[in-house]
Design goal:
19 strands
């Protein structure tokens, strides 16, 4: 991934009322701000200055140009002076890219001894942005508003979060995700309306028979398997039984064959993620454990049991978090530690947790799996480090999609887990175990999530706003009484908003 190939356009609003000299100053100030933001190390994309817009036609044209640009992922709008907002209606109606309203001004301080009416006419953001804000609120447009001086670190960090969310949203447009087989039988939460998802999110999900994948796996050459097995040996602590000449070396080679076949299938089809189910892997000798882990490590989305919504979310969050310390992975709340002095959640899955969230060097092991009816699968085993994190889930509520996020704090294992040969994470949900888990259940949160070490609730809220879907947060200040009311209010709002 290269987020620097993406552009966010810096668009300044004004009008002809103030004369050419003022408009020249407006342009110079806008160039200065755009250049500073573009050079800010926190912001992962290009910030591109665009000429000041002063008429309805100029506004409409820049919005249409943004829509058609393959590199533009959104617009930063700022009203340096007063820009009559009726001029913006046509452009904003046409705009299809995310929008952030930067409520700032060029000068940080009031020049007390020198301020005059010329200065006031030039620096009118305080009420120019209010005019702009009104028309977007009147039009019921989703956007982010960031308030503060453009050199403030908080402002830059908020723009960073929004730009990353815009990159993830842009990546979804036209994306393709593949399902090998159907959903796990009789499971409810992994189901969903794929047609509505394509309308709402911009990505498509289609099913391919497992035989199509098995055919590609069968065409993998021995030479490429040799190279990948060597990479396994160099990258991980390889279990002795998997080494060349040992009893289970053939299983390691088969795992490598599956990874290479999956990777080729995804690359050839232009897919950005996939899902499978252990109930439908006819023709494969083992479940794709290490294959799914490493493909996620390469940036692909993945989720188990046919859960295409989570697979797509994993991909989006990997794009959003690209270049930041830490990783993003498919996750599942597996079991609880209800010790009253130390409540914990153990997160894991049968096999498929991404190596990007590992602490230290993973070990490559092979163990029996009491589900799926296949040969013993190869997988990476590791612990995940402590620190702040989030769990995020998208669920289909029937009349809308809901984004649910729980802020958590990961902790190191309090004891060893010698008989649990899977990748795993321990965390404490905010605001506490009982409130956090109860709120998740009340909101209908899925058992599958994307676990992120490098994104925050702000990233996901911005993303949900871009998608126009409900966002519910379980965080440090969550109160169950208020949270239940919020869910009820959301139900009414989205029913009316349809």
């Amino acid at each position: 991934m290269d987020l620097k190939k993406f552009e966010v356009w810096f668009v300044t609003g004004s009008q002809h009322l103030y004369g050419e000299e003022t408009l020249k100053q407006v342009a110079e100030h806008s160039k200065t701000i755009a250049k500073a933001l573009d050079s800010a190390p926190q912001i992962p994309v290009k910030i591109v200055f665009k000429p000041t817009v002063k008429t309805p036609d100029e506004i409409y044209n820049i919005c249409m140009e943004a829509n058609s640009s393959k590199d533009c992922i959104g617009i930063i709008a700022w009203m340096h002076t007063f820009s009559p907002a009726k001029m913006w209606i046509g452009g904003l109606k046409a705009l299809q890219k995310p929008l952030v309203h930067l409520h700032t001004q060029f000068n940080r301080d009031i020049p007390w001894s020198d301020i005059d009416m010329d200065f006031m006419n030039l620096n009118q953001s305080a009420h120019g942005d209010r005019e702009f804000g009104f028309i977007m609120t009147r039009m019921r447009l989703n956007r982010k508003v960031i308030t503060g001086h453009w050199q403030d670190n908080e402002v830059i960090e908020s723009l960073n979060a929004w730009a990353r969310s815009a990159a993830g949203w842009h990546d979804w447009q036209g994306a393709r995700f593949v399902r090998f087989g159907d959903n796990m039988r009789q499971v409810a939460v992994t189901e969903g309306d794929k047609v509505e998802a394509e309308l709402k999110f911009g990505y498509s999900v289609n099913t391919y028979g497992i035989g199509d994948l098995v055919k590609v796996i069968g065409e993998v050459s021995d030479a490429s398997i040799d190279r990948l097995v060597k990479e396994y040996d160099e990258s991980y602590t390889l279990a002795d039984s998997l080494r060349k000449g040992k009893a289970q070396h053939a299983s390691l080679r088969e795992a490598a064959r599956i990874e290479l076949g999956l990777r080729a299938f995804l690359e050839n089809g232009g897919f950005k993620g996939f899902t499978d189910t252990f109930e439908d892997l006819h023709g494969m000798t083992q479940l794709p454990g290490i294959a799914a882990q490493r493909l996620m490590g390469s940036g692909y989305g993945f989720a188990g049991e046919g859960d295409w919504k989570t697979s797509a979310l994993v991909r989006a969050m990997k794009v959003m978090g690209h270049g930041l310390p830490g990783g993003n992975s498919f996750m599942e709340d597996y079991t609880y530690h209800f010790n009253p002095d130390n409540n914990l959640v153990l997160g894991a899955h049968m096999l498929e947790i991404c190596e990007s969230i590992a602490e230290g060097k993973p070990s490559c092991e092979i163990h029996p799996l009491g589900i799926g009816g296949k040969a013993d699968p190869v997988r990476l085993v590791f612990n995940s480090p402590g620190g702040p994190a989030i769990n995020a889930s998208i669920i289909d509520m029937g009349n809308r999609f809901r984004m649910l996020v729980n802020e958590v704090i990961a902790v190191p294992p309090i004891q060893g887990l010698p008989k649990l040969p899977v990748a795993r994470v321990l965390w404490k949900p905010y605001p506490d175990m009982k409130t956090g888990c109860t709120a998740w259940i009340l909101a209908g949160g899925a058992h599958h999530t994307c676990y992120s070490q490098n994104l925050t609730a702000e990233h996901l809220q911005d993303f949900a706003d871009m998608a126009g879907i409900e966002f519910a947060l379980i965080g440090k200040k969550t109160d169950l009484y208020q949270f239940r009311n919020e869910l009820r209010w959301n139900e009414a709002y989205y029913q009316i908003n349809r």
